[in-house]
Amino acid sequence: MVSYEAIINLIGSTRTRTGLRVKALLDTKEYETGVSVSSQQIKELNIRRHSIHPDWNYTISPQTN
What we know:
Elements lengths: L3 H9 L26 H5 L2 E4 L8 E4 L4
Antiparallel strand pairs: 1-2
């Protein structure tokens, strides 16, 4: 890609067959590096993997306590 703007426009032009529109914004915040997540924390996430490319496509939902 040539620019962030081009990427945002490409993602933002995505539509599903049923008309769902995708909204994309560039996050310019700076985040702390070196933050570790334990295996236990990963196991506790409420992750539903999709059937197509489950390593890339998944939904993370809030915990139901």
